[in-house]
Amino acid sequence: MPRGVWEKVPGSGIWWIHYVDAEGKRRREKVGRKGDAIKLYHKRKADAQAGRKLEKPLRQRERTFEEFATEALSYAKKHKANPADDEQKIGVLVNEFGDRIASSLTQQELAAFLDSRKTSPATFNRYRATLSMIYREAIRNGWTERNPARLIRAKKEQNGRIRFLSDEEEARIRAVILKHYSDRNLNEFEIALHTGMRRSEQFSLEWKQTDLKARRIHLLKTKNGSDRAIPLNSIALAALQRQHAISGSAERVFLTENGNPFIRKAIRRWFEEALTIAGIADFSWHCLRHTFCSRLVMAGVPLKTAQELMGHKTIQMTARYAHLSPSYLQNAVEMIAGENSHPTATKLTSTTTATKTATGR
Question: Residue 282 has what DSSP assignment?
Fold first, then answer.
């Protein structure tokens, strides 16, 4: 069988061809049956060798943005560790552009929509990435040749300010949870605060990933693409033990009161309400993760260790927290300030003393 003929999805019965045309451009075409694909492949090769330019194929039909998005969502569910974020963003984009012909959308139009949402630079960039993924998958499928999202300028993200709970704020929010909410809500809060798990990691956690005897949680294929083991301190362990009494027979560790898996809105609803009652402003669930890392650094935990516990892909991400340790830089410079630690310093001190003695000063 020719090398340029392949079945993209094994067992699907749908075959594709790949070749270089008379203009030197690489082409892909979705054909269908294997025999038809082989015949068309040989025809395209013969046309290219004869210098015959490829006629622009008539599109079977123009596809809508929703069709592009549906294919991209299928890809995300198969290949991404946490496809829920893409699913939410794709829902917003389909609601706006769903029935439009996808190839008719321009970079300016897509950028204008993202700007109109008045989101943070980080959220803008995540939507841009999702849009780009949608068009990349369409290109791979042979549905379009352009990716307008690729030309949208990314916005500069401001990562300097890190919001974390003070001890007094933590006491207030815990008091509110104990008074107005259930034990399961307290467990969710304690485990987030004392493990630093991402929201998607925590609320997709299954009991088979936990080992209460070894005091470990094992996360599979996290956001940075690797596994991560999380040790449990006494508070996180106690919270998990309480949670096991609530949902131990279920597959998931965290479920709603109705026994359903958590969705983003369910978490946000009760937590934002509790923050309002406690009088805590400018705070979100993700800030519990910031709090975990901030407290590690302020307790003197080395940045490399904090990086491993947080699951950061690079040390630069963890270094954002370094300024929170008042002794971090001071300890670094004191390492070279020990008594007689440098021969030059010793020589200068001896010379100065001798000079003072000789001159009587």
Answer: S
Q: May I ask the CATH class of domain 65-151?
A: mainly alpha
Distance from C-alpha of 200 to C-alpha of 254, rounded to nearest angstrom: 11
Q: Which of 39, 26, 35, 45 is nearest to 7 (CA)?
A: 35
Q: Which residues of 161-195 are buried (b: 16+ CB within 10 A; e: fewer)?
A: eeebbeeebbebbbebbeeebeebbbbbbbbbbbb
| Dihedral of alpha carbons 350, 351, 357, 361, sign | negative
- Does the model's pTM come out above 0.90? no
The domains of the chain are located at 5-49, 65-151, 167-300
Cα angle, residue 219 at apex, residues 187 and 202 outer, rounded to 5°: 30
Please give the CATH number for the structural domain made up of 167-300: 1.10.443.10
- Quote the percentage of the chain above a pLDDT of 90: 35
Q: Rounded to 10 degrees, what is the CA torsion of 155, 159, 161, 166?
A: 130
Sequence-separated contacts (24+) of 5-8 with Cβ below 8 Å? 5/34, 5/37, 5/38, 5/41, 7/34
pLDDT at 94: 93
The pLDDT tens digits for 296-333 are 988 888 889 999 999 888 888 888 887 665 555 566 67
* Integer Cα distance of 192 and 187 in angstroms: 8
Helices (H), 141-258: 167-180, 183-195, 199-203, 234-247
Q: Quote the CA–CA distance of 65 and 188 in Å, as a whole number.
A: 38
CA 114, CA 124: separation in Å to the nearest integer?
6
Comparing CA positions, the residue from 127, 133, 123, 157 lying closest to residue 284 is: 123
How much is the pLDDT for 193?
A: 95
